[in-house]
Design goal:
Layout lengths: L23 H16 L4 E3 L9 E4 L7 E11 L3 E7 L7 E7 L1 E7 L5 E7 H14 L10 H16 L1
Antiparallel strand pairs: 1-2, 2-3, 3-6, 4-5, 6-7
The protein binds zinc ion.
């Protein structure tokens, strides 16, 4: 069973490595990520969040089907930013308003190594951008002001001490 890695583990702040082999092991890993995502009631999960520093994430956003993104590249983002509340499975109990592009185009590979391009907006775009950040070792607390981040991490520190 995959365990969720929470804030403080260096894997969350490390740039993940590209996938080089598309094999059964990779497909099984992706399947397991969906199991974990469902168990944790999330809508997106990146491999570093289960301790695997690889460029893989999965999404299962409302109104969309489950999707696998391997070695993704965000090739376009819309200039207008949208602010919306986000949570992260690696920061249990913390939610912040985060500004992100409202729409994007992403290129990635599926678990069989087949390339695809996807245009997304709304919640799906937000989830993709949040999960993509995880692959670069960036966290949603890096997307808010330093003061708010400091307060948030203090709050988180209190949460974990309890
Ligand atoms: Zn997250």
């Amino acid at each position: 069973m995959q365990q969720i890695v929470t804030y403080g583990d260096p894997v969350l702040e490390t740039r993940a490595e590209p996938v080089t082999e598309f094999n059964e092991e990779l497909a099984a890993f992706c399947e397991e990520m969906f199991v974990t995502l469902k168990r944790e009631r999330g809508i997106g999960l990146a491999a570093p969040q289960v301790g695997v520093s690889k460029r893989v994430f999965v999404t299962d956003a409302d109104g969309d089907r489950p999707r696998i993104f391997i070695n993704p590249e965000i090739v376009m983002t819309s200039p207008e930013l949208v602010e919306y509340e986000e949570g992260c499975l690696s920061f249990p109990g913390l939610y912040f308003m985060v500004k992100r592009s409202g729409a994007l185009r992403v290129q990635a590979f599926n678990e069989k190594g087949r390339p695809f391009t996807l245009e997304a907006e709304g919640m799906l775009a937000r989830v993709i951008l949040h999960e993509y950040d995880h692959l670069d070792g960036k966290l949603f607390v890096d997307r808010i002001s330093p003061l708010r981040k400091q307060r948030a991490l203090l709050h988180y520190g209190r949460l974990v001490k309890m």
